[in-house]
Amino acid sequence: MSDSQQPVASSPFVRQWEDTRSAVLSAVEAVGESGWYILGERVRRFEERLAARCGRAHAVGCASGLDAIDLALRVLGLRPGEKVLTTPLSAFATTLAIVRAGGCPVFVDTDEFGLLDLDLADLALERDTEIRFMVPVHLYGRCLDMERLMDIQSRHGISVIEDCAQALGAAHAGRQAGSVGRVATLSFYPTKNLGALGDGGALVTDDPEIAELASRLRDYGQGAKFEHLHIGMNSRLDELHAAVLEDVFLPRLEEWNARRAEVARRYLEEVSHPQVKPVPVRCGFQSSWHLFPVRVPGDRRAAFRAHLEGGGVQTAVHYPTLIPSQPALASVPHEVVETVERARALTEEEVSLPIHAYLLDWEVERVIQLVNEWQGR
Length: 377
What we know:
Elements: H1 12-34, H2 41-54, E1 58-62, H3 65-75, E2 83-86, H4 92-100, E3 104-107, H5 118-127, E4 133-135, H6 146-156, E5 159-163, E6 171-172, E7 175-176, E8 183-187, E9 201-205, H7 208-217, E10 222-224, E11 227-228, H8 239-249, H9 253-270, E12 277-278, E13 285-286, E14 292-295, H10 301-310, E15 335-336, H11 341-349, E16 350-353, H12 361-373
Parallel strand pairs: 2-3, 2-4, 3-15, 4-5, 5-8
Antiparallel strand pairs: 1-9, 6-7, 6-13, 8-9, 10-11, 12-14, 14-16
């Protein structure tokens, strides 16, 4: 198809709506007919299905992925000022949750894949035995080494909270992302693989006491109506979101992830520009392909993005600034363990190519064509 013959592209999110509209409206109608809009049967049912999908015993819905991490840290007994080991390369929400829960983030560099370097994390935990918490992120939809993560949690006696906001469907060594930590957290922000029509989140765990306390804390700390046992918060997953997620989006997740994987496969096989290098996925690891990050020379990144935008292709940068370099942390206690140069290099070189379950084949071909035509040599 020539450029002049290409159809006008609608947003993948618009296509998703067109495909799911009838089912979504049926779910909304069912909630309306029930007359129950907050923490009702639909939330309970979705939590059951989500826990089963994640291979965990319990799920607790909340208002966002940030709140899920915050709740997890509070439930696990984080004390004011206590250190929490985490990554410098992620959405700011990961660290914001730690700070909001009262913790002091301790940043350890990433590996070449953009994930928390577990070797460096292991050393940091050996050197500082006061660290009781770790919040690793399965970034870009790539899964951490689950066996190694489980070993670190066990040997150091720490509580791991897996940030799986981008990784529902990722796996390694027969273990899903989110199946190792004492708690794992999810985001249902609309861009996620399992995104709601608005914001939402959840935490999953095998511990019934953790799930029970999290259920109370998300609802003003109530044990029963007007009986406030804890200083909680208002962070509840709406019935409408739960119904749409359960009835419409969760049943399609495997199909959607498979389409993302097909788009990723084409990029990996057909992008051939010598200065555009996909951030690799380790052999034997299954990605959810939430993002498709590539690396280009830092001094040419703006030109690369402008070239694609000129051809009608929108790209993004995940993430342009390291978390410990964010102005908001200037007055917040935090630590950086030695150097974070691998993470910093990614902030300077990473570009995310379009990837979505509703990308059309001709759009994928257009991305590949523009990347390969770029005069970046």
